[in-house]
Please model this.
Amino acid sequence: MTTITYPLSRIEGHARVVIDIHDDEVFRADFQAMEMRGFSYYVQGVPAEQITVIVPRICGVCSTAHQVASVKALEDVFGVTPPPLAEDVREVLLLGQLIQNQATSLFIFTMPDRINADSIFEVAEAKKEKERQFSIAQNALRIRKIGTDLISLAGGQFIHPIKTTIGGVTSGIPRQKADEMIKTIDTLLPVAEELVDIYWEMSMEMGDRIGSWGDDEPTYYLASTEADNFRLNSNRLRLMCPEGKECQNFSPHEFESYLQLEDSDYSYAGISSFQGEIMRANSLAGINLANSMGTPKADAFLKRFVQTFGRPAHAIMFFDLCRGIELVYALEKSRQMLECDLEHGETEVGYTPRDGVGYGLVEAPRGPLIHHYEVEKGLIKNANFIIPTVHNMLAIRRALMVAAKRYVSADGISSELGRAVGRVVRAFDPCIACATK
Amino acid sequence: MEQKRELPKFAVLQLSGCSGCEVSLLNSEEWIENFDLVYMPLVVTSNKIPDDVEILLVSGGVRTDEDIHNLVKGASRSKKVIAVGTCALSGGVAQIRESHPARDTYMLSSHRLRLPDMLPRAYPIDRFVNVDIYLPGCPPTPELFMTALTNAENAKIAPIVCQECGRQKLQDMRPTSITGMRSGVTLPDICLINQGFVCVGTSTRGGCGALCTRPGHACVGCRGPANPYLNKEPKFVLDNLRRVFTRMTDIPEEEVNAVLDSPWLSLFLDQFTDYTQDDSLPIRTKEKMI
Ligand code: SF4
Ligand code: SF4
Model:
């Protein structure tokens, strides 16, 4: 038996792919998280109201989602409803994170695969495309920065934000800052659309070159956005069956009746399934489950996507294209929201802490994220983090198997395999720090 | 672009952390013009740190045997080592100590899966390699990153967070209990301690621009102790904080103590000062701190 190990770069966290080959045949293909963060252990015994400062540190890439989910879970425990203004500021915060994350995944993590480069900062020497590539990198960072600026505006700082607090937000968004942001978005939205177009083309070329868009077996999809309202500060989860019908709709309180969570024996990350069946979360799930995005430019991209690839679409490389649709949506939507008055009005309400159980749901960039807490005598007795990446673990494994089989034969192991496993894993944009909470 | 090859080589080694430090670095884009990024697995396909690196940034704590290996190797190939983030300076916000039940879970699989072994605790990086510059923060702001990369020697950093906060400490507004968190509103421009929050900006190193306190969230001390408390026992920082609360509030001492001992502060303050327990650590001089 031969075992090949591929360390992975251009993903969040430390992970690798391990492939076992038996008699010229792929026997196993595992995606291994190599670290264990362990936050669900440290927070046991912590005063409940302090957990919102600690849990963003689970992950610096999606700290925003963790912070909001954590606050929502405690609001559920304490029975407090934040004022509408606070809900809107939180939505802007989450949109900022979606922009930051999708821009990072598209342009920094996966675009190099499409141009056969090691990174977008590496400028191809000989190619006449040099100039073009350089401007792509610069524009990508400018778009990404809109996301981080929005998080700073709505969250105080763009990593481990602090403005969302139990009962609301500490302050709104001043008009002048909102107007500056709107101006930036107006300048850069066309740039973003163009980048998504370029990315789309590059992906089509890559698909042709490789001759495959990856694992395309029909699968269940999980998202917490609504069919006609892509709100990220979400309240319910939806599940789509492989043939494309929405077959389950449930609140985060009921997640245990729908999602099975278990440890895995090959990785520090857990796995989840719908009654034992493989699921997928993240961009493709949200887009498969959406009738419309509700903003004109994103809707045009959605239409193009559905017309070209059908609905539901299943090949894993579509995840990347769907990130593009979400990116355009988040830019348009945050612009819309910034036009409203997010400065005046009630930003937070008081609350009285009490013991109990609570659930906080948001649609994080990688899919639905739930924080589930049990509070006893003011302390966290148990904390359970239901992580979007974990919903994709079985799907990643299957997709790796599909790719590995393609490149391993009696003639040997193709040198393309290393690149292929990277592409497969990055399509799911996994977050290892989160997955080993 | 042709001169690009002559730019100083720059590498980013991520040990056990959350990637927040790297994400912050990505926002201080100016390094793209000034440095040649040769290693940073988060954004570049790269398997090893090359020789002759001018500046090595290290984020994350030393938590596994693999971390030690990568750190020692990386430092030996680099002229200057900068420790970035609370984790690299203190071991990390995600501490699993020897007695922690989570360790057993980890150890159970590490050998079988040929995954890295976990050390008895997460260590700061200067326990293993010489550190030239320390850049605390969780994470440090992009501006601080640029200072560390280009102007560490002449950096002017505000001594404490209060100096950058802009909120005013009032004489006649003395809270009688810790209520801040639950009041529902935060008054702008007035010190959060006056409003019943436990803010530790008075002992915490500035330079962050008071990003938390300005919009109304108490400082939790992520940049660690201000200069007077460097290399001191946790007690020094905590005693100073106690004095601040006695001076400014009528909150009963037990109530203040309960918060000062609580996890969200220990997340930072305790961890920073914890290194005073470990003799094998070098003294950190204020000249090396940003
Ligand atoms: S210092 Fe903070 S931001 Fe940096 S790696 Fe550690 S937890 Fe993440
Ligand atoms: S104690 Fe906190 S709120 Fe008060 S001035 Fe200092 S940093 Fe600002």
About this structure: Residues B 161-162, 165, 167, 169, 191-193, 199, 201-202, 210, 213, 219 surround iron/sulfur cluster (ligand 2) (CB under 6 Å). The first helix of chain B runs from residue 20 to 27.
